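Entry type: protein chain
Record version: 2
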Amino acid sequence: PAAGCTVIDLEGQTHWARDLADLPPLFAEVAEAWASALEDGAGYSGLQQALRERDVPRLKALWDRLVPLWDDRTFYDFVAQSPAFAALSFRHREVFGQVGFGTGGWDSDFPNSMLEILRVVLTGCDEDQHLIVGGAQQVPVGLWHHAPAAHELCHWPAGTTLSGLHHGAPRPGVTAIARAPDGQLALTDTWGNTRHYPAALTTCQSWLLTTQIAVEESLFSQKHWMALDRTRYMQSSKTFVMVDRPFWNDLKANGWPTLGMTLTDRLTRGTYLFDNGPDQPGVICLSYAWMGDALKMLPHSTHKRVQLALSALQKIYPDVDIASHIVGDPISVSWEADPHFLGAFKGALPGHYRYNHRMYSHFMQDAFPEAERGIFIAGDDVSWTPAWVEGAVQTSLNAVWGIVRHLGGHSHAANPGPGDVFARIGPMALPE
């Protein structure tokens, strides 16, 4: 509904829709098959009820049953083998891959472990999304400037911020982490300065621990190195242009807007429209693509990407001159080409549950040898929900508990931390 109008262009046929009823029956059949597959293959309604009621023991029991069933099987296997989709044509599966749940296609995720997909749909991450004014970076920026009240702080005066503690700027990037002779962790920055700390928390993508940062190998076990390096990141590209106004809202003679949010099998895949008001400049994400579709863009300049996207969209909207509305310089992003990302986010493959468990539970260090204690990992790729800020926050809270324990502290008895309840409600471990 937030899109106002959705245009689906598949195999050269274009459909305009304001709701599902405007689309051919095929799309409703796909939606119904997906709902049935989730119920038959994962007990979706029971999991949803346990989530709504915050019944943690029940939720854990239901989820633990699914882990050994679906860790080794792909998303596509789940779809193709479900009775609901098996009763339909290949075309139904193909359309599901192209259009997915309405905001983008699922086919780029087809090789992923089904557990990865179940976590997204069960927690509703794929529905009712909202634009964050100023972008997702408002989360770290907000934490940086947050000024807690007096009753929230023990060691600093009321109003203290992280920004203030760091004199308004973060330290330079880290290039090396090693164990110092005094037992602390020695962190070397990009300018060659080395400082010692009793603990360190890394929140970068895990591959950077072997490509961008020289991390002393003994700081992690070989099992953990295996997990960190086997993390599989998904490629993704976006191409944005700023336009003079949200001209897509202009109504045509038939009553439909000039453009709609567009899902297609052409190289643009997803095109999204950002409206800042009737007379304000708007933004079009000409192309939002994944995996193979993203790799098609990787060698090309931003200018070439815009040309390719406009050419594809011209076939869908032959009477619309998008280029005439473009102002400013286009922007494109390929996360896999950025040395500080190497990919958009994690997409676990079949058999990766054990790796994810090692990474997620790394903050539980009581059984670690002394040489591996004190360095902690967090971030969405350490979590069970890659690409979502919830996973980054959750793993950071886990790491805070681990760091506090490492420094000799503990949680308040009335407010146990994640490590205090890990044995009871932590994720199940599969046999090695």
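Comment: The chain has a mean pLDDT of 94.
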